[in-house]
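Methods: example folding runs. The two proteins below were folded one after another, and each record is reproduced exactly as written to the output file, sequence line first and structure-token line second.
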Amino acid sequence: MPKQKGVIKIKGTLNGICYYSLKGEHLLRKAAGPSMERIQTDPAFANLKSNMQEFGAASKLSKAIRTGFFEIAMQFKDSHMASRLSGLCRKIIQKGNGSPGQRDASLANDPKAFIGFQLNKNTMFHQVYKANPIVTSSENRDVITISILESNTAHLNKRPKKATHFQLTSALSLVSKYKCYSNKKAYYPVALKQNALGISQKTGPLACNIEHKNLQIQLKTPVTSKLSSNIDITVWLGIQYLKQEGSQFYALQTYKAMQCIALL
């Protein structure tokens, strides 16, 4: 441990440093915060405990969303996507039923808040591709359909000069409602077996210089049983430009984007 220097020796805590004596020596160390046991049991830390539990729930909710379409998300995301998503989930949890620290963690708390979330905040999907996607689902939500009635050159707002084609990528991610269990002092998914599952689908290469009508992409939810009412479905749509060379298509890394377009 570092020793105190100088003529005057002090005891106590000052500016986060603890000054004390031990076996005749005057020492100092960084002051320790409260233990986890104290946070969990001391009423003085009730607010801190509640915040910690809800931050943990937001992290779990965010991870479940990302896990459902992880490989696709990796192609479009920015370096801070996970933290931005956790922050949004935290705000959504704060609108849930229950007392702080025990509020329901569900995307359904605020469905509109999630729609429009960008995987890369520096490249907005709706600025790159201006066509209007329409999302519909079957009665039991096992088949999701994304329809684009019309797509033409005017909708390709930031088309790179080298691009000859574009490709649309759709994805869905199943996310369970999370509930805080007092005996475990943590949040867990209500529909565990269906949580964090996902699927994706891509169109073929679509020529940039012609009009496309009635584009459709269908996604079938990746579960064999009936979808739980405690599951929310996040639906995503992305665009990437391609360059054709002979019979091959090469993905361009500029102006690719993806956003959440529906919550079902």
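Second run, written to the same file directly after the first:
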Amino acid sequence: MTVKLAVTGKGGSGKTTIVKAFMHIFEEMYPEKSILLFDNDLTSELAHSFGLDIRNTIYGIRSGKHEYKTGIPEDMTKSEFIEWALEDIIVSVSENVDIIESWFVGSKDCRCPITKQINDAVYKLINRYDFVIFDCEFDLKYLNQLVDTEIDTTIIVANPTEESAHLAQRIKEFSAKHCAGNQLGVVINKVDNSKLSMLSELLRKYELDILGTIPYDSDLENHCADRESEVVKNAVKSFYSRLNLPQ
């Protein structure tokens, strides 16, 4: 059974660093399991953090602009072609970790057959993996436009500011219907211990369900490209037991 984790939030909040922290934790806990990193963020920062410039995307399949690695097999149905094309755009990060880029997604209001065909093909793809981590564009609505799938845990990444707390509340409202019955909460990133009292006031004001906090890591300034942080990974480990994920 596939475990699905979605990480949402405003750009610059630290989503990519947290996605990579979860990836490393899953690798450590379950070294034999397969992991799919699903980059649903238009910035493609997750791929860039691995030094990858991925140009072949799910949108490219939909728009017919994708350049395939091999010749297109003959005598396939449209659904078979889309499933084959998805396989063609997956990029291997390590032995057990793959990444795929969605980029733009079609509106569910579109009644063209390819919308459902892509939804079905993506659903089949993600359910082949043991773990899928979605790096989302702002909230779950954008991901839901691409694929209908149940998310076990959704994390909204926010920073310890008034503006970010207010935005986290909005993201929670937008995402709630797409993860009904499953875990949805906030992780406060880049926390300065000297401002914990201010943080407590913000949490009370916006009634946010806090799953955990992550301290500010100044070393990330030296790892701005790869978004790797032991501080973040250790912080995630400290609240991991609260999450609706395999323990």
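Comment on the second run: The first helix runs from residue 15 to 29.
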